[in-house]
Amino acid sequence: MTYLAPGKYTVSGGDGTDQQFFTAEDTKIVGTGDICGVEEGQATIRCTEEQLEAATKGDGVSAEVVVVNGIATTITDDR
User: What does the DSSP 8-state code read for residue 2?
Assistant: First the structure.
């Protein structure tokens, strides 16, 4: 998952295609070390949009994204 612009990201599918999507105020963002949180921790924690943006700039992060009608409902760090 990589950052494109404020509130706009892209995620690569298993078949190598990229899908662009937006986040919304109610998008649930969960981290376990890449987006936010502690890598050694087993528990997931809620992340902010700012943390997501910072984590996805550059090389991006590996995450599972559920997209409905072009808007992410859930983004989960899959560390």
Answer: E
Tell me: pLDDT of 61 over 90: yes
- 76: region left, alpha or beta (phi > 0 left; psi from -120 to 50 alpha): beta
Check residue 52 and report its DSSP letter: H
What token pair was written down for 55?
């984590």
Strand pairing category for 63-68 and 71-77: antiparallel
At 42 the pLDDT is 65
3-state secondary structure of 53: helix
Give the three-class secondary structure for 54: helix
* Structure confidence at residue 31 as a pLDDT band (50, 70, 90): very high
CB neighbour list of residue 69: distance below 8 Å, 6 or more residues apart: none
Whole-number pLDDT of residue 11:
93
8 Å CB contact between 8 and 24: no
